[in-house]
């Protein structure tokens, strides 16, 4: 067995799902690509997203206490990357995607994304370089074509991931086992 070696503390843990965060800033829809996102509570369902403090998007989230999260498919890769490259303070990003609104007024979502959620901020954690917005999910939206058995199907959605430090986007792979099941026959030696 190889010996473990210490590497850079800033190394990101795999994997980071790519999402598009939507909000309204200064009366205009704005989108930002993010990958520091995760579910943080199941009942009520909540999502947390960490955004660097310098992002224009944060201003809208702080003001309206709402944001949208849209899961893009691989066919939106170039537009999604562009949304992360450009600042909404300098470029009108409202036209990158076709937007739709659920029940929240300031949580725009991307119509072309297979799966979207609108969130109401319940708390914000101030970190040294980021703001971690935790939002309660107020609604989740998709289309029949992205479902199997009434549930979102990852193969139909075709999301992608960000890996660091190599700064690459990657497609989601094959199923390798059933969660909370595959380990039932494991034996400690």
Number of strands: 14
Number of helices: 3
* Sequence stretches where pLDDT stays below 50 over 5 or more residues: none
On the 0 to 100 scale, the average pLDDT is 94
Listing every helix as H and every strand as E from the N terminus to the C terminus, the arrangement reads: EEEEEHEHEEEEEEHEE
Q: How would you describe this structure to a colleague?
A:
The chain has 189 residues and is mainly beta. The chain is built from 3 helices and 14 strands. The protein has a 7-stranded antiparallel sheet. The longest helix is centred in the N-terminal third of the chain and has 9 residues, at 56-64. The model has no long low-confidence stretch (mean pLDDT 94).
Give the helix/strand layout:
Blueprint lengths: L15 E2 L1 E7 L2 E7 L2 E6 L2 E8 L3 H9 L1 E6 L5 H9 L13 E2 L8 E2 L4 E12 L3 E12 L5 E2 L2 E2 L1 H4 L2 E4 L4 E4 L18
Antiparallel strand pairs: 1-13, 2-3, 2-6, 4-5, 5-10, 6-9, 7-8, 9-10, 11-12, 13-14
What distinguishing features does this structure have?
14 strands; 3-stranded antiparallel sheet; 189 residues; 7-stranded antiparallel sheet
Brief overview, please?
With 189 residues, the protein is mostly beta strands.
């Amino acid at each position: 067995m190889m010996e473990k070696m210490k590497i850079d503390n800033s190394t990101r843990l795999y994997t980071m799902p790519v999402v598009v965060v939507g909000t309204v800033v200064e009366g205009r829809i704005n989108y930002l690509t993010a990958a520091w996102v995760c579910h943080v509570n199941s009942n009520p369902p909540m999502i947390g997203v960490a955004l660097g403090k310098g992002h224009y998007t944060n201003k809208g989230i702080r003001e309206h206490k709402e944001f949208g999260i849209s899961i893009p498919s691989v066919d939106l890769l170039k537009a999604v990357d562009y949304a992360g490259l450009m600042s909404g303070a300098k470029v009108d990003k409202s036209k990158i995607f076709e937007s739709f609104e659920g029940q929240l007024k300031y949580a725009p979502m991307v119509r072309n994304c297979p799966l979207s959620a609108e969130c109401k901020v319940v708390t914000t954690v101030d970190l040294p370089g980021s703001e971690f917005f935790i939002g309660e999910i107020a609604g989740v939206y998709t289309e029949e074509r992205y479902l199997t058995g009434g549930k979102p199907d990852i193969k139909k959605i075709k999301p992608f991931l960000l890996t660091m430090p190599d700064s690459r986007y990657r497609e989601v792979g094959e199923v390798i086992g059933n969660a909370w099941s595959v380990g039932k026959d494991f034996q400690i030696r």
